[in-house]
Amino acid sequence: MFTDNKIPVVDIKNLSFRYGNQYVLEDVSMRLAPGAFLGLVGPNGSGKSTLLKSLLGLQQPQKGEIRLFGEKVEKYKGWDRIGYVSQKANSFNAGFPATVFEVVSMGLFGKKGLFRFLNRKDKQKVREAIEWVGMTPYEKRNIGELSGGQQQRVFIARALVSDPELLILDEPTVGVDAKSVQNFYTMLEGLNKEHGLTLLLVTHDVGAMTRHVTDVACLNKFLHFHGSSKEFEANQDLSAFYGHDVHLLTHEHGGHGS
Ligand SMILES: Nc1ncnc2c1ncn2[C@@H]1O[C@H](COP(=O)(O)OP(=O)(O)OP(=O)(O)O)[C@@H](O)[C@H]1O
Ligand SMILES: [Mg+2]
Question: Which atom of ligand 1 is nearest to the CA of 45?
Fold first, then answer.
């Protein structure tokens, strides 16, 4: 949990956000301590992605304040300390003609400038990131030939290659089978515990996630809960509501329809 002698990685105070005149976030305050692994849950349209986009400075909230590593987001410059995998990350690569190695190297281009050659150290970093997500055997494979879950791992490696201190993932397990979801969370837990990476994970798999995260936040326009995963599990009303809801939503999200 949060200890006051450390600067929070993320510090959100009284945040409200509206599209047009419709508020989708109201008076949200939330802190993420260094080394935390936070699972952010909430039904469709509850404002989760809006919250992430606001804290990444991609859109300007109408009220409240957001600080990243102690600095206001409007003035924040240390973006290489933050990795982000968006909710739609896996729609980008249908037939994309690049190998796993190449896709992961793209994570370095922010620092190196596009079309610069990778030096030996860069290549080493790329290999390391691929290894962290357990994709070394697939390094030379074309990204389009991988399963959805494997592709997700590659996108995470791409976000990890620049050595971020905070990794933000928006529903990375949509369309991933139950066993792979478990492996995936175990991998994230390893990055959190062994590499000290702070993680903010938006997910609908409440059951699978709770065993691996340190903290849980429940959002539904307002922040209904923010505490340790143990407190969350102990609060049966809360875990029933968000857990149940989430189950239905996962099905909906799985893309069996349209
Ligand atoms: N660009 C936009 N313009 C107008 N309304 C938007 C826009 N983006 C999102 N919204 C609305 O804001 C609300 C919150 O959306 P958001 O994407 O943050 O939800 P979410 O919690 O991430 O949902 P999901 O679980 O489906 O990803 C929704 O009602 C959505 O329709
Ligand atoms: Mg979303």
Answer: 19
Range of the domain at 59: 10-250
The pair of three-digit structure tokens given for residue 222, joined into one six-digit string: 């307002």
Q: Which atom of ligand 1 is nearest to the CA of 53?
A: 18
User: Is 256 a member of any domain?
Assistant: no
Please check whether residue 1 lies inside any domain of the structure. no
Is 3 inside a domain boundary? no
What are the average pLDDT values for consecutive 10-residue runs of the chain, which has 258 residues? 75 97 96 96 93 93 96 92 79 70 86 68 93 92 85 88 92 76 86 93 88 94 94 87 56 38
CB-ligand 1 contact for 47 (6 Å cutoff): yes
Q: Is residue 63 in a domain?
A: yes
Number of residues that make up the chain: 258
Q: Residue 209 — φ and ψ, nearest 5°? A: -75, -40
Order of all β-strands in the sheet with 37-41: 82-85, 166-170, 198-202, 37-41, 215-220, 222-228
